[in-house]
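Lab notebook page, bench 4
Experiment: in silico fold of construct C2
Operator: M.H.
Input chain length: 279 residues
Purpose: comparison with the prior construct
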Amino acid sequence: MSMYKASVIVPTYKPRAYIYECLDSIFAQTFPASDLELIIVLNGCCEPYKDKLVKYIEEKAPVKENVHLIQTDAPGVSNARNMALDIACGEYILFVDDDDIISPEYVGGMVNSSSEDTVVAARLRLFDDVTGEEFHTNLTKAYDIAREEISNRPLTLFSGRRLLSAVGGKSLPMQLIGRNRFDTTLSLGEDSVFITQLTKRIKHIVLAPEDAVYSVRKRDNSASRAKLSAKKQIGMAVSLAWIYFRMYLADIKHNDFKFYASRIVASLLKAFIKRYRTV
């Protein structure tokens, strides 16, 4: 039985000041702090970052015993997320990147919309790290399209596929995740592959209330907005397409053909776009 209603997982590497804005937004939730677990994974580095985080948690955490700080010398966001999943005690899992911000109603809106076979998607916004200017994002567009679609009929895996490309801004039931974990060999596309593993067990895709907002910080040097060489970009696109093809073949009877076909096509198209990015 879960000890908490929700576990928020924040992986971080050599965090700068923005992580404290992120954690401030988590500690400012209207959702009861006693029902919320926070797991921070400091990966690939240690001091002085660990000491600063420990002091911050001591000073700011509403319920200190609900906050867990893990330090590992092993690098990689996927490894960090997997370590957190191994110890998470929440009924629902919410991933938050260390430079992003969630609205005060975010956790409550996500949890209250959740059930054991449902993925909940929040509205995303993209803002400039320096100016604060807000930009249009593919995932904001996906939310708006889904909002229009859901007014006529429930979302299917195929009609809601654009919402399932990133774990940020999602509530995922721990029961649905089970033993599935992130592929640590992937440097890009790992979010989409992880969620795709869960699709056979996803029965519903729903939208969180509009005041549950996940704000993505636009940083030109972040991994999700990195410019790749043409060779690496083509190799990554083909590799992802092959992963989805093998996943589909592994259980053709229960896998959704249209959904997997869309994943394969979208992966191959990434070979031709000017810059790979997740938002």
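Observations: The chain has two domains: 4-221, 227-274. The chain has a mean pLDDT of 91.
Next step: discuss at group meeting.
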